[in-house]
């Protein structure tokens, strides 16, 4: 394997670790956001539930008022009817009849109002039952996510620490000038930093590279950049990136095993 081909392989392996680190960090960011979104959803349902509950309380108080008015009307009508029996002249009797008719009309209006209130109360109770069921579901999910958040964050941070250690080991394999070039590009461009070229097309920006650059790329005499996106490039037929990553991972594991054996022999 040529020097430059080995360096490209090292960079591809490093990039794979960086990709894993990026994904873990995105997950770490996303977890609190999920809980925050659930909290907003819970607050919105709780607000809707409270609003319906307040409306039901108001309607119930109105129903009590109407019932009280109806009872008072019935009492007054009965009193008026009893007084009619004691009226001594026709004029006063007819006046009492009109008064009773007016009170009975008012009472019928209140009965209609009571029916409307009862129907609306029933409608609000049905709405409340539906919202309350959703409220309990969201509340349970929100509480569960809140409890699990810290443990998941701890797990992911532990995994991230391991990846950072692997990255440090992998970065040490790359010559400092090449690593500096890789890091410089990584800070300025979105992943990936090093990409294959297939059929003269850079897989980072999907733009064709000049023919002369492609010819130089096939020689593997230096590490080249795409003239369009400035990413590091390699010819896809030179090696399989996944195989390169596996070889690097195996090399790291072998190094760790040797270090463990050395520590054991020293003891």
Q: Could you write a compact summary of the structure shown?
A:
The protein is mainly α. It has helices spanning 3-84, 90-172, 176-188, 211-219, 241-266, and strands at 194-198, 201-202, 224-225, 232-235. It contains five helices and four strands, in the order H-H-H-E-E-H-E-E-H.
Structural commentary:
The chain is mainly α. The protein has 2 domains: 20-172, Helix Hairpins (Orthogonal Bundle); 176-259, no CATH class. It contains 5 helices and 4 strands. Strands 2-1-4-3 form a 4-stranded mixed β-sheet. Helix 1 (3-84) runs antiparallel to helix 2 (90-172) and helix 1 (3-84) crosses helix 5 (241-266). Residues 258-267 have low confidence and may be disordered.
Secondary-structure map with pairings?
Layout: H1 3-84, H2 90-172, H3 176-188, E1 194-198, E2 201-202, H4 211-219, E3 224-225, E4 232-235, H5 241-266
Parallel strand pairs: 1-4
Antiparallel strand pairs: 1-2, 3-4
Strand tally is 4
CATH class of the largest domain: Mainly Alpha
**Number of folding domains?**
2
Order of the strands making up the biggest sheet: 2-1-4-3
- Spans of at least 5 consecutive residues whose pLDDT stays below 50 are 258-267
Gyration radius (Cα, Å) is 40 Å
Main structural class: mainly alpha
Strand content: under 5%
Could you tell me how far the N terminus lies from the C terminus, measured between alpha carbons in angstroms?
38 Å
The profile of the biggest β sheet is: 4 strands, mixed
What is the helix/strand order? HHHEEHEEH
Shape: rod-shaped
Report the total helices.
5
Mean pLDDT: 85
Name the helicity range. over 70%
Assign the CATH architecture of the largest domain: Orthogonal Bundle
Q: Please name the CATH topology of the largest domain.
A: Helix Hairpins
